[in-house]
Specification:
The chain has 144 residues and is mostly helical. The protein has 5 helices and no strands. The protein has helices at 3-27, 29-37, 43-65, 70-92, 112-134. Helix 2 crosses helix 3. It is globular, with a radius of gyration of 16 Å. The two termini are 18 Å apart.
Length: 144
């Protein structure tokens, strides 16, 4: 399998992840709103995050769909997955007074440890895709 195919498969998996995550929040808006308002951040920030998180997930999926922007989508995926993973690590280490949760869909059935492994797996995929796509000598990132 050539590098372009590998990056396409990785991008497809990430697109599925981001679209699923965003839609699970948007289609179950009331539940997402209640969970987001339970977060440890001030209410004003939670209100912004209620929309910013799914919009950023859909935006990232959109970047991954276009060859010209795929590297940016892989990079943004790395950042988001890193931030979400750090948040889980903080929760697991009792950094907050209470345990918040704003996970939707199937992911809400995972324990915090399983969720961290899930995120780290996708972070590794995104990082691998980004490294592969930015290596010199290939046709990555060029419009076909």
């Amino acid at each position: 399998m050539n590098r372009s195919s590998v990056v396409s498969v990785i991008s497809s998996l990430l697109i599925f992840l981001w679209v699923y995550a965003a839609l699970s929040k948007l289609l179950n808006y009331e539940q997402s709103r209640m969970q987001m308002m339970n977060q440890i951040f001030p209410a004003a920030i939670n209100k912004v995050l209620l929309w910013a998180v799914p919009v950023s997930e859909l935006f990232t999926a959109g970047l991954l769909c276009v060859n010209r922007w795929r590297n940016s989508g892989l990079f943004v995926s790395c950042i988001l997955l890193f931030l979400f993973s750090m948040y889980i690590i903080l929760v697991m280490n009792h950094a907050f007074e209470r345990i918040p949760c704003s996970c939707g869909g199937i992911i809400s059935k995972l324990t915090w440890g399983q969720h961290l492994v899930f995120n780290l797996f996708f972070l590794a995929l995104a990082l691998a895709g980004f490294i592969i796509s930015t290596k010199k000598g290939g046709d990555m990132g060029k419009e076909k």
